[in-house]
Amino acid sequence: MVEIVEVSPRDGLQNEDRTLSTEDKLELVERAARTGVRRVEVTSFVRPDRVPQLADAAEVAKALPDNGIGYSALVLNVRGYQRAVEAGIREVTTLVLASDTFSERNQGTTTREAVEVVREIRRRGREDGVRVAITIGASFGCPFEGEVPESRFAGVAAAVADVDADEVSLADTIGVAVPSDIETRFGLLRECAPGVPMRVHLHDTRNTGVANAVAAVRSGVQALDASLGGIGGCPFAPGASGNVATEDLVYTLHRMGFDTGLDLGAAIEHARWVTGKLGVPLSGRLGRVGGFPT
Amino acid sequence: MVEIVEVSPRDGLQNEDRTLSTEDKLELVERAARTGVRRVEVTSFVRPDRVPQLADAAEVAKALPDNGIGYSALVLNVRGYQRAVEAGIREVTTLVLASDTFSERNQGTTTREAVEVVREIRRRGREDGVRVAITIGASFGCPFEGEVPESRFAGVAAAVADVDADEVSLADTIGVAVPSDIETRFGLLRECAPGVPMRVHLHDTRNTGVANAVAAVRSGVQALDASLGGIGGCPFAPGASGNVATEDLVYTLHRMGFDTGLDLGAAIEHARWVTGKLGVPLSGRLGRVGGFPT
Where are the alpha helices (H) located in A93-132, listed in sequence order? Predict the structure, then answer.
């Protein structure tokens, strides 16, 4: 079993020109649930002036149906964590960017300071019974510094491991990783944090998303973020496409014999719906050509 | 060293609405050479009423510059072989389709009959000093029959191995393969034909092209077909995209530490040129976003 975490309501929507209504966002979450997914990243509790597309985070969170789906939300600091918990969120994804320049620009802290913020959120999470995942962003390359050397990554991974979170994710934020990077860096993560559940967050910017997903699953990664239709993108990487498309991952993983619990036909249907709502083309390929055999 | 065989002048052009002039085709071959590629599949000697885009095969072949590049051409029968050799071609790619239905529709023979045609071409090739490669088309799935069972594939691979060609290629003609398929079927091929140089021909229809290329290289495949810009498509698979893009393979393979001899910047430049000439969007991703680090 390989888990797909549907992140279209968060990462998918935060960089699109068109902002969906709260009602449409809730419909997207419900449609995601109908694909068979068990966890959805529903929004981000960040500054509304920075990410106006998700300014209704609390309204979305408060209106989520109680249907057995795990809902997570991205938070970047303690203030965001508090807002999320007040809105009923029981799982947060936190972010440590692997390069100082990117970290300073994205959240106004160095990487090391971000680790301390995450440690405080983890402490509160234990008190509140809130699950805390940590994403190491730009694990494979930085839009400002370029290469993130293996030694740098290893230091960040060790610091993150020390926080002892419920899950650690490596994010290819700007879509530069290749399979050998995935294998090496998850290997380093496993050395730093033996036994921690590992997750990966991939962008298909350079057509390596599916190859990296396969490498991740074969490296013992248990959960893969994906977006219906491959929507989204990175504001720091012009021309970048979004997350690897849910439907493309489902096709590949199922034909390789991995179960995801998702239904390919449903994923394609809802990928078409969300790209239609956003007025963007399907970035994933399965929605254009359909599965095989038909 | 992993060899990339540039097939855009053949597979890339044969399914596009717009037909390039002979002059533009020759420019495409020259531009391909400037990427650093050592082998180009320049045209196909097939019936001009079936593939009007390549009706000028002989004119193209006769005008090829003598610059150290290896030129190959696709032929489907002895008549095509003769035309190719008369036009100066010294390497042919022949085709055995793994399913009878597809073979009958594409070239009017059963799979078994196609093997005999290829055997005769091989015999003549030895006499003429012409290199003969065999492609097993639809190795991973057929547009008419659906799944190509492993047992069926193994039988075809054994028959093809018996012809003792200079190279055997497995083609994912309709773009349905996943990495485990690549590993299994090249494993079977290697058992049938130990030591034969192996080549793969991938379409990126379902976003598995790069993942399959990585699996192929790791399975001992020495040559990968690719098209600048990812141009092309399969007339039997509506909505299908073309070959895996040369520039996308170059990016991934180089970052994984494999040398191809190609220059990524040049591949992107010429991918833009050919898609511009054809009036189609870039199917590959690197031409939109550029390499990394920049």
Answer: 100-107, 111-128
ipTM of this complex prediction, to 2 decimal places: 0.97
The C-alpha atoms of residue A265 and residue A250 are separated, in whole angstroms, by: 10
- Is A142 an annotated catalytic residue? no
Cβ separation B240–A214 shorter than 8 A: no
Q: Kindly determine whether residue A205 and residue B285, on different chains, have CB atoms separated by under 8 Å.
A: yes
Pairwise CA distance, residues B87 & B21, whole Å: 18
* Separation of first and last alpha carbons in chain B: 23
**Which residues of chain A are within 8 Å of residue B206 when distances are taken between CB atoms?**
248, 251-252, 285-286, 289, 292
| Residue B238 and residue B2 in contact, taking contact as beta carbons nearer than 8 Å | no
Q: Indicate which residues of B carry an active-site annotation.
A: 234
pLDDT by residue (tens digit) across A123-164? 999 999 999 999 999 999 999 999 999 999 999 999 999 999
Give the C-alpha separation, B99 to B146, whole Å: 9
The predicted-structure confidence for B68-125, as pLDDT tens digits, reads as follows: 999 999 999 999 999 999 999 999 999 999 999 999 999 999 999 999 999 999 999 9
Rounded CA Rg of chain B: 17
CA distance A150 to B116: 54
Kind and range of the H or E element at B132?
Answer: strand B131-137
**Length of chain A in terms of residues written:** 294
Compute φ and ψ for A242, nearest 5 degrees: -85, -155
Closest-CA distance of chain A to residue B253, Å: 8
Residue whose C-alpha is closest to residue B141's, from B55, B239, B229, B234: B234
Chain B: residue whose CA lies nearest to A247: B206
CA dist B76 and B40 (Å) reads 18
Set out the domains of chain A in order of their start, with CATH numbers: 3-289 (3.20.20.70)
Q: Which long-range contacts (CB under 8 A, 24 or more apart) does B145-154 make?
A: B145/B99, B145/B100, B145/B101, B145/B102, B146/A292, B146/A293, B146/A294, B147/A293, B148/B98, B148/B99, B150/B184, B150/B185, B150/B188, B152/B98, B152/B99, B153/B98, B153/B185, B153/B188, B154/B188, B154/B192
With an 8 Å Cβ cutoff, are A252 and B211 in contact?
yes
Distance in Å, alpha carbon of B177 to nearest chain A alpha carbon: 8
Cross-chain Cβ contact A252/B178 below 8 Å? yes
Distance from CA of B21 to the nearest CA of A (A): 30
Give me the catalytic one of A28, A234, A264, A278.
Answer: A234
